[in-house]
Amino acid sequence: MQFDDQVWLVSGASTGIGLEIARALAACGARVALAARSADALQREAAALAARGLQALAVPMDIRSDEAVAAGIARVLDTWGRLDGIANVAGNGGTLSRWCDAPSHGTESMFAVHVLGAERVLRAALPALVRQRRSVVVNFASTVAWVPMPGAAAYSAAKAAVVALSDAWRAELAPLGVDVRVFAPPHTRTEAGLAWPLPLPKVFEPQWVAQAFVQSLRRGAARSVPGGNGALLALQRLSPGLARRIMQRIGFEALRRVEAAA
Q1: What is the pLDDT of residue 144?
Q2: Cβ-Cβ contacts under 8 Å for 104 (sequence gap 6 or more)
Q3: Domain-located, residue 120
Q4: Could you identify which of 50, 106, 167, 210 might form a hypothetical disulfide with 20, taking C-beta atoms 3.0 to 4.6 angstroms apart as the criterion?
């Protein structure tokens, strides 16, 4: 995949993985719309990219709002006249907690951002994506979409829904020239990621994840699980019970750490 002159929209682009992906795409020659709720942070980051001679646009957008998403997509099209790719990064897992202790609206909130937010962006952008006849939408998932983790019931369910929707969208939209993919990053050193004290041997840097994302785009992978987590998914196919026990051990140990620190 060549990124020169392509236009990409990256949600959740004010910090963390979303910001690093926006930076990486811009460095590859794409014109990048940075979308998130924090207008000041977006303006600052877009200006920093412009100072390096890269093309970037700050697009304040709350993906929970039909009006905000429609306005954001319209701004991208008014500025650059096209849209070639979307990275649906926005969202985080919140703080780990037992489902019975979580607020009653927790599952609804997770689905509102991760599932309905991704759907809302795709619906608003679809006419522009179809016009390109060759466009890409990448929805962000997580290993817990396939192997749910205690302490993250709502997040696991939301990401599982993202994977299911993405598979259906991929089949339905392929004849229209829209390639829908899934990217599931490893545990990453972001503010949201560090809220999950998982007992893992490595925490990846957002810059590494962004480079892995660009590489997955170049390979054309329908599903990418970098950083070693693919091994757990392979194990799940061979021994679902063992994979489940491994994830349960990780989740309950992380919960113990959260509860001990409270």
Answers
A1: 97
A2: none
A3: yes
A4: 210
Please give the model's pTM, rounded to 2 decimal places.
Answer: 0.96
> What average pLDDT does the chain have?
96
What pLDDT, on a 0 to 100 scale, did the predictor assign at position 26?
98
Return the SS3 of 143.
Answer: helix
Cβ atoms 137, 92 nearer than 8 A:
no
Buried b (16+ CB within 10 A) or exposed e, 133-166: eebbbbbbbbbbbbbbbbbbbbbbbbbbbbbebb
Residue 219: inside a domain: yes
Of the residues 3, 140, 155, 196, only one is catalytic, namely 155
The domain that contains 53 carries what CATH number?
Answer: 3.40.50.720
* Domain around 79: 7-261
217 within domain boundaries: yes
Domain count, the chain: 1
Active site residue 155: yes
**Looking at this protein, which amino acid is placed at residue 198?**
L
| Residue 1, in any domain of the structure | no
